[in-house]
Design the sequence.
């Protein structure tokens, strides 16, 4: 367990340094809930065992790489093993008994050999824990995930035949893949879309044909997936971000307080036990569906366009249940 935690910290340290965040031991210790000495040992491991060119910038107050082209050593020898690790041991638990099982176990063994300490994986003990996906998750071709991961690593363009659900049509696109992420059991691809000339999120379950092209692309060094996705709500990013304000009654507020719904959120407590949730996003269609799932316990206060959209949707729903829509058809 200790070695796996060390691996997670090392990957996070590497991510923050590459993003130009200049992490320091105090910040990292607070984030991981460990002592600063532990973070210094992680740094020493990266320098001595992995050859990381880490230095301290006094002006920025944190670490950076003296050689920005340095990369973590390759631990995995096949694309299947790499993907299995990206799923993480916990998420990959659901793939035991599937084609992912063998690459997963092989990847865990390589991690064990590369780090200090001992790691034991007892499959029988893992049966005590389960991770359930949504029953509505869309099945994805395993080969597609392998190929997209390879294209991301090799900076290769990909031609896809994609179904746009909002228009109900298929279209061939050429994309530059940047990142894969899993949300509630579904896989999404963040990629630059040549058709739209902009970054887009693609549901991999809507790709029926694809081809990794020989043509390579140059990644935008200033593009951060994390920063870009801050504008999204769940998996929908939409257009320009706007402030969303939603009031929850005292009953629903108990559950809203438990979670962090958006990176920009702010909670305003109300005297009656309710609360007002503020956040900034462009994914208003997703917000509309989310708010409506709480029924009478939630009310959109802003923006006005979203408030009206919810109001109109509720009116159409009421008409449906009162039979008005059916009567119009006779």
Sequence:
């Amino acid at each position: 367990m200790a070695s796996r935690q060390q691996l997670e910290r090392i990957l996070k340290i590497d991510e923050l340094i590459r993003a130009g965040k200049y992490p320091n031991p105090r910040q990292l210790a607070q984030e991981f809930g460990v002592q600063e000495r532990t973070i210094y040992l992680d740094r020493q491991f990266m320098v001595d065992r992995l050859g990381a060119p880490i230095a301290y910038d006094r002006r920025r107050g944190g670490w950076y790489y003296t050689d920005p082209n340095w990369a973590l050593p390759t631990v995995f020898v096949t694309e299947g093993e790499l993907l299995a690790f990206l799923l993480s041991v916990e998420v990959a638990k659901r793939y035991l008994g599937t084609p992912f099982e063998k690459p997963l176990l092989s990847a865990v063994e390589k991690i064990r050999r590369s780090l200090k300490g001992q790691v034991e994986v007892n499959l029988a003990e893992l049966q005590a824990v389960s991770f359930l996906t949504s029953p509505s998750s869309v099945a994805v071709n395993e080969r597609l995930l392998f190929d997209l991961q390879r294209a991301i690593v090799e900076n290769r363009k990909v031609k896809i035949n994609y179904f746009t659900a909002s228009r109900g049509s298929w279209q061939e696109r050429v994309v530059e893949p940047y990142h894969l992420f899993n949300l509630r059991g579904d896989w999404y691809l963040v990629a630059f879309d040549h058709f739209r000339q902009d970054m887009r999120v693609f549901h991999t379950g809507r790709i029926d044909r694809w081809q990794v092209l020989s043509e390579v692309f140059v990644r935008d060094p200033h593009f951060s997936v994390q920063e870009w996705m801050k504008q999204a709500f769940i998996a929908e990013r939409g257009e320009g971000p706007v402030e969303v304000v939603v009031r929850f009654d005292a009953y629903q507020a108990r559950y809203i307080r438990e979670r962090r719904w958006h990176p920009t959120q702010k909670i305003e407590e109300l005297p009656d036990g309710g609360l007002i949730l503020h956040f900034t996003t462009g994914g208003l269609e997703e917000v509309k569906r989310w708010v409506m799932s709480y029924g009478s316990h939630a009310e959109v206060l802003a923006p006005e366009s979203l408030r009206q959209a919810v109001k109109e949707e509720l009116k159409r729903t009421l008409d449906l249940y009162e039979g008005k829509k059916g009567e119009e058809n006779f």
